[in-house]
Sequence to fold (207 residues):
Amino acid sequence: MSGSPLRLGVLLSGRGSNFLAIAEAIRSGRLPGVEIAVVISNIAGAPGLSAAESLGLSTAVFVSKGRKRAEHDTDVAASLHEHNVDLVILAGYMRLLSPEFIAAFHNRILNIHPSLLPAFPGLDAQHQAFDYGVKIAGCTVHFVDEHLDHGVIVLQRAIPVLDTDTAETLSARILTEEHIAYSEAIARVASGEYEISGRRYLRRDSF
Fold:
C-alpha cells in the first residue's frame, strides 16, 4: 500500500503479547507502512495498556463490565474513528463484538486464534488440541465476522505436536508462531494485494 501508513487500532484485555510483537515488528522495520494509532482496552489496568503507554502510544479505556455490548462497542468504534483507524487488531480482546461494530469495520478486523481453524474454536484451543491428541497444531489469523472464530482465513502457521509436549509447552510454542503470523498477516492486508472470494483469501500473485 502506497501513500499514508496503514493505521492500526489494537483492542486488548490483558498483557498484549501479540500487540507487543506487532509493535516491535513496526519499530524494527519488518512491518513497513504501518503504524499503531491507538491501543484500547475494556479492562482498566490491563498490562498491555501500560506497555502501550511506555511506548508513547495513544491509549483509551472503555470498561465493559456492567454495560450493554452495543453501547460499549459504540464508544470503542467512536474512538477508533477519532484516531482514523484503518484496520482493527484483536490482541487478546476477551469480548464478543456486536454485529453493529463488525458491520462498521467490515473486512477490517483481524483476530488471531491459537488453533488451525476450523478445528478447536473458542476458549483454551491449545488445550483442546492437546487433549484431542492431534499431531499438528498451530495458529490462524482471520478476518472477523459475526460468528465466533469463523471469518475468512488470511494465513495459518503449523507446528508438530511433540511426544514430549504438555498442554503448556504446546501453548508456548504456538504463541511463538502467533507473534510471527500476526505481523505477516497485517503486512499482507497492508499491501492491498488480495481479494476475498467467498470464504477464500486470495493473494493477487496467485491469480
Observations:
- The chain has a mean pLDDT of 95.
- The longest strand covers residues 34-41.
- The chain has two domains: 1-105, 111-207.
